[in-house]
Amino acid sequence: MDLNIINLVYLFFRLAPFIIVSYFALQSIFNQDFKGLIYLVGLLIAAVTTVVIGNVLPKSTEPMIASAKCNMLTLGANEPISRLPLSQTVFGYTLAYLSYFIGINNLQTQNIATFIIFPVIVVADFIWSTSNNCATPEFLLTALIIGGLIGVLWAMIIDSTKVANLTYFSGISNKDVCTQPSRSMYRCRSVKKDTESK
């Protein structure tokens, strides 16, 4: 593969779901919290649901001649494990999951980049996949909707636990989380002040 702009764009779109998942996993490890693990559990549910629904759906009636670009990086042996594109599921799930917490905590102005970058990636992947005959627009939209719905539902479940350490964008940082005070012992001593003037 030559390193030109088209190949770099292709590589970015093929690896974007892995990059996003790796980011959340590594952030959780480095911050020593469960936020990334909770995100990944929900994403796993979304991915399994997408695979199951994708295998139940009838094959597209349009003649799809998938190029080698579509199957160069897949999780299956020779073909993708799902008829529905998992990349759209990852994008839809992540955007919906983060948007829920951003919305309930009124943090929209601090997270404008999230609402710009993710839709751009979703639309660009949609255009790239359809123009290269990797998936039909219906399958792409179905995967995006499945990911989005499960992202919102999972975020609602996590939010219902009322544990701020499990949610992204809770409105407080890790250093602001309250902890139980510990007992402290203080030693006092009195100091005599010499009041006599010489």
Keywords, separated by commas or semicolons:
0% strand, 198 residues, single chain, elongated, mainly alpha
Overview of this protein structure:
It is a single chain. It contains 6 helices and no strands. It is mostly helical and 198 residues long. The protein has one domain. The termini are far apart. Helix 1 (5-31) crosses helix 2 (35-56), helix 2 (35-56) crosses helix 4 (86-104) and helix 4 runs antiparallel to helix 5 (112-131). It has helices at 5-31, 35-56, 68-71, 86-104, 112-131, 137-160.
Mean pLDDT: 79
Radius of gyration: 25 Å
Give the fraction of residues assigned to helices: 55-70%
Strand residue content: under 5%
Number of domains: 1
Low-confidence stretches: 173-177
Q: Number of helix segments?
A: 6
Pattern of helices and strands? HHHHHH
Overall strand count: 0
Alpha carbon gap, first and last residue:
92 Å
Main β-sheet description: none
Shape category:
elongated
How would you summarize the topology of this molecule?
Layout: H1 5-31, H2 35-56, H3 68-71, H4 86-104, H5 112-131, H6 137-160
